[in-house]
Design brief:
This protein is mainly α and 293 residues long. Helix content is 71%, strand content 3%. It is built from 11 helices and 2 strands. Strand 1 and strand 2 form a beta hairpin. Helix 5 crosses helix 6. The termini are far apart.
Length: 293
């Protein structure tokens, strides 16, 4: 039982890494209707900004807050001067632009800071506690709790606030929203800015666990996209639950299914995607889209 609990908690901690990026992807999609493949690269860049602030003697928490604020501004500027040129056109073109942006941001990060592994300090204590016979890291518990809090905040934002409803309206129909008096341009900038700020939080949570490198989140981004598809593009709760499910199932399958083991556990989320898309194409928590003809 102790081993099982350990695997589940470790899976939740790993899933929280995927969930942090998945939430940022959902946020951009809710605000603009696009999937931002550059989210991982922007999160890594923000982590490097926080690292540079630490090198200048800034306290850790203040450095992370500075990175979050700068990421919000950067996200808004990217939407205003790059993404907006492709909005309203072919969605596939905008997706390719975000992939190109990921390559650009990763390259710039590597040119400035190099490819060496850097140690980023943890926001949470590195001590462990005993939980039902399993030794659990306080950092893992705190990371999971942070993701739960962010998920709840986003759910309230989109469902209960005027800003969230305006962001959803702009994503669904920008032209009608503009005719209704909504400042579409500013709302799109806010949506991208919030997603970039959330990515900065994700980078600060992940960097201490993976070591800081330009490609730190490349693998996690794949899992995050899988979580978004499984949970639903319009559901923060669904993205987090799916990310946790992926993390836990990976751990359990690797240990309890010898045929798969650690080498093939990466196939688990993709098998889940196929099953879910066949049974429920909109995702576990997504809304079914009804088109009037």
């Amino acid at each position: 039982m102790g081993t099982f609990i350990q695997l589940v908690i470790d899976g939740l901690s790993t899933g929280s890494i995927y969930a942090a990026l998945a939430l940022a992807i959902v946020l951009v999609n809710q605000a603009t209707g696009l999937i931002n493949f550059a989210q991982g690269g922007l999160a890594v860049l923000s982590a490097y900004v926080a690292y540079a602030c630490l090198g200048a003697g800034v306290p850790l928490l203040v450095a992370v807050l500075i990175a979050v604020a700068l990421s919000f501004v950067l996200g808004g500027l990217i939407e205003r001067f790059l993404i907006r040129r492709f909005e309203g056109g072919d969605p596939d073109t905008a997706v390719v632009v975000t992939i190109g942006l990921l390559t650009l941001v990763t390259g710039i990060t590597a040119v400035i800071w190099g490819y060496n592994n850097l140690q980023f300090p943890s926001l949470f204590p590195l001590t462990s506690v005993n939980l039902l016979g399993a030794v659990v890291s306080v950092r893992s518990l705190a990371t999971t709790a942070t993701i739960v809090a962010i998920m709840a905040i986003l759910q309230v934002l989109f469902m209960k606030t005027k800003l969230g409803l305006a962001l959803r309206a702009v994503a669904d129909n920008p032209r009608s929203s503009a005719l209704s008096g909504l400042p579409v341009g500013r709302l799109l900038m806010v949506g991208w800015g919030l997603a970039a700020a959330l990515g900065a939080v994700a980078g600060a949570l992940v960097a201490p666990q993976l070591t800081l490198t330009p490609g730190m989140l490349d693998g996690a981004l794949v899992y995050a996209l899988a979580a978004v598809i499984l949970g639903g593009l319009d559901s923060p709760i669904g993205a987090v639950v799916a990310a946790w499910a992926i993390g836990v199932l990976e751990n359990l399958v690797a240990v309890y299914v010898p045929l798969i083991g650690h080498d093939l556990k990466i196939a688990v989320p993709f098998v889940l995607i196929v099953i879910i898309l066949v049974i429920r194409p909109q995702g576990l928590f997504g809304r079914k889209v009804v088109v009037r003809v």
